């Protein structure tokens, strides 16, 4: 008996254990055949022998069960180790992913403003007339609405044409001081060499109580930001018009392709337009219930920044999903 128990303990794997079990407790097993001897015994002996066999069977079954548990755990452990994937394994032939240049450019822009303690705000892509136009000082009859071709839904809601409605949403829910940027997709009915119906903007808004914020503040932060983005470029501000800022400006940098000498990309001017900005028009504050505050706002197109940063000549290549483009940004 002890010998059998020892044999069980010595089993090295599940199949050895199973074979041993069959040879002892199986239909033709050694212990099972002992049971068949019972029928030749007399009552007294039979009872005694049967009790002995049953006790042995119980002991062996117990030993088998214990050993099975031990070996099975070992087996599962090993299987888990074999099946586990090595996420650190690097195959030189496999293709690594890369951030799309629009996203990496967006990240770079966001990093700059977050480092200056600007918050990041979000707004819906489907907007209403109030947030996208009216509260931005574009009354219904205003000709400036023609500046932007809008996708309308049947219920008069629309796909936002710029990120500026998030200025309104932020001012309606927060009190100054406000220092925020809002990155996201915008939509216009425009599709040609230099326009796509969906593109990305980053909008910025700073509002302080009192009359502290000046055009000089706006100018210095944008100059610093543009040199952080593009290196040692020249920056110039040109007077412009936006309904929600007054005064307004468009900002140019010296052409990153020809260094300002004049080329096809800058249309021989030596300058590239990169930003719209201005001092927040007092009319906007009326719509959000602010008084005695001052602030500035700016907005930029991320695709344009990405093209200038990476010298990508054709806007459409950013939207084609061609892996050969992405492979260059690994
Ligand atoms: N919303 C303007 C546009 O889409 C950009 C802008 C934002 C201009 C903020 C001034 C201030 O063209």
From TrEMBL:
Residues involved in Mg(2+) binding: 246
Keywords of this entry: Aminoacyl-tRNA synthetase, ATP-binding, Cytoplasm, Ligase, Magnesium, Metal-binding, Nucleotide-binding, Protein biosynthesis
Recorded catalytic activity of this chain's protein: tRNA(Phe) + L-phenylalanine + ATP = L-phenylalanyl-tRNA(Phe) + AMP + diphosphate + H(+)
KW ATP-binding (keyword) present: yes
SUPFAM superfamilies named among the record's database cross-references: Class II aaRS and biotin synthetases, tRNA-binding arm
Co-factor remark: Binds 2 magnesium ions per tetramer.
Similarity field: Belongs to the class-II aminoacyl-tRNA synthetase family. Phe-tRNA synthetase alpha subunit type 1 subfamily.
Listed PANTHER family: PHENYLALANINE--TRNA LIGASE, MITOCHONDRIAL, PHENYLALANYL-TRNA SYNTHETASE
This protein's name: Phenylalanine--tRNA ligase alpha subunit
Species this protein is from: Campylobacter sp. CCS1377
């Amino acid at each position: 008996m002890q010998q059998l128990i020892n044999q069980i303990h010595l089993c090295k794997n599940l199949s050895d254990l199973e074979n041993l079990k069959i040879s002892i407790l199986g239909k033709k097993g050694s212990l099972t055949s002992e049971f068949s001897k019972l029928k030749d015994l007399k009552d007294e002996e039979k009872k005694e022998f049967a009790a002995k066999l049953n006790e042995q069977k119980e002991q062996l079954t117990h030993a088998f069960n214990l050993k099975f548990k031990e070996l099975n755990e070992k087996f599962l452990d090993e299987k888990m180790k074999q099946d586990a994937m090595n996420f650190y394994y690097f195959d030189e032939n496999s293709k690594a992913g890369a951030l799309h240049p629009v996203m990496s450019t967006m990240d770079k822009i966001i990093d700059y403003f977050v480092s200056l303690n600007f918050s990041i705000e979000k707004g819906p892509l489907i907007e209403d007339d109030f947030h996208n136009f009216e509260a931005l000082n574009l009354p219904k009859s205003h000709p400036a609405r023609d500046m932007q071709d809008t996708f309308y839904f049947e219920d008069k809601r629309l796909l936002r044409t710029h990120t500026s409605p998030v200025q309104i949403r932020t001012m309606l829910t927060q009190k100054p001081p406000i220092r925020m940027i809002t990155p996201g997709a915008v939509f216009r009915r425009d599709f040609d060499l230099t326009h796509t119906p969906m593109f990305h903007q980053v909008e910025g808004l700073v509002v302080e109580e009192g009359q502290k914020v000046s055009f000089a503040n706006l100018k210095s932060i944008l100059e610093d930001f543009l040199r952080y983005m593009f290196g040692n470029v020249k920056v110039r501000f040109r007077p412009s018009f936006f309904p929600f800022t007054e005064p307004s400006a468009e900002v140019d940098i010296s052409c990153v392709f020809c260094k300002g000498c004049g080329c096809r990309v800058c249309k021989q001017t030596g300058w590239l337009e990169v930003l719209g900005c201005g001092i927040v028009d007092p009319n906007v504050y009326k719509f959000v219930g602010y008084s005695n505050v001052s602030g500035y706002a700016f907005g930029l197109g991320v695709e344009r920044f990405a093209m200038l940063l990476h010298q990508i000549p054709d806007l459409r290549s950013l939207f084609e999903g061609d892996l050969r483009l992405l492979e260059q940004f690994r």
